[in-house]
Design brief:
With about 280 residues, the chain is mainly alpha-helical. Helices cover about 55% and strands about 0% of the residues.
Length: about 280
């Protein structure tokens, strides 16, 4: 049963179906790039084998990689087999190490061997290590479960709530603080006295602004998700379109524009010959 999320409309769904029916690859790809990968995965799951093959062909390896990362495990091998070995290499290269390990976890041994042979040596070593995690190791016990806390809770109550999600643990990796809470804390500190700025921090010590933003440039810095995207890239140290897309649950094109805006702002480097970007901002302690 199709469960339409808030990020996809009935019109989007009908347009995707129509593009498949009319074999309009260009229209399908343009639509797919604007729809969140989770919705595309649900759409793919509802198709018959013929339309799934067309979906893969029309979407291309870059978009379809996000779909592979989100479809049920039982469909992964057949999904990858829509492509030739050369395209399978491109498809697998688009996946993060964790998603790649998840995708290969339940495919047949023959398929796993073939897919592993397509990986670059460095990626192969990392994925092979991830696949060997035992159930009782840290890697084997990682979870994507999340908890919910609210403002009426004390810190102790919030910790107890989060720790109660799985087995009792000694520590938590992170605690989320909402933007509203951050703004209230900053406002409180600002109300206590006038700020005394350290110019060397603001300028990097050389008299020049640490980051120079071009207010006249035609970028996506006015996108309501721009600040959140920057925060994610700085925290994760991952300046990739796919990671921003997955984190913010947005279409591929919008994520690409946000990354390009970060490049124009001097946060990330231009795309290298290997397709990756480097962060130009020092890691925050």
């Amino acid at each position: 049963m199709w469960r339409m999320s808030e990020s996809i409309t009935k019109h989007d769904l009908e347009a995707l179906s129509q593009a498949l029916e009319q074999n309009d690859a260009d229209a399908f790809k343009l639509l797919a790039e604007e729809i969140h990968y989770a919705d595309l995965a649900d759409f793919y799951e509802e198709l018959d084998e013929v339309d799934r093959a067309k979906f893969a062909e029309f979407a291309g390896t870059k978009v379809f990689a996000e779909v592979v990362a989100d479809i049920p495990d039982i469909l992964v091998e057949d999904a990858i087999e829509h492509f030739s070995p050369a395209d399978q290499h491109e498809l697998l290269d688009e996946l993060t190490d964790d998603d790649l390990a998840d995708a290969l976890q339940d495919v047949s041994e023959d398929a796993k061997a073939r897919y592993m042979s397509l990986l670059d040596p460095k990626d192969k070593k990392v994925v092979d290590a991830l696949l060997k995690y035992g159930e009782e190791t840290a890697g084997g016990r990682m979870t994507t479960h999340y908890g919910r806390v609210h403002l009426s809770m004390t810190v102790k109550e919030a910790l107890e709530s989060l720790r109660g999600i799985e087995e009792e643990t000694d520590s938590l990796a992170r605690i989320f603080v909402s933007d509203d809470e951050v703004h209230r804390i900053v406002a409180d500190w600002k109300s206590r006295s006038e700020p005394d700025y350290l110019e060397e921090v603001l300028t990097g010590g050389d008299g020049e602004p640490f980051l120079q933003l071009d207010s006249n440039s035609d970028t996506e810095q006015e996108d309501v998700l721009y600040d959140e995207a920057v925060e994610f890239v700085l925290e994760s140290r991952r300046a990739s379109i796919s990671s921003v897309q997955r984190k913010l649950r947005i279409g591929y094109n919008r994520a690409a524009r946000l990354i390009e805006a970060m490049e124009m702002a001097g946060l990330v480097s231009p795309m290298g010959s290997n397709g990756s970007r480097e962060l130009l901002v020092p890691k925050r302690d």
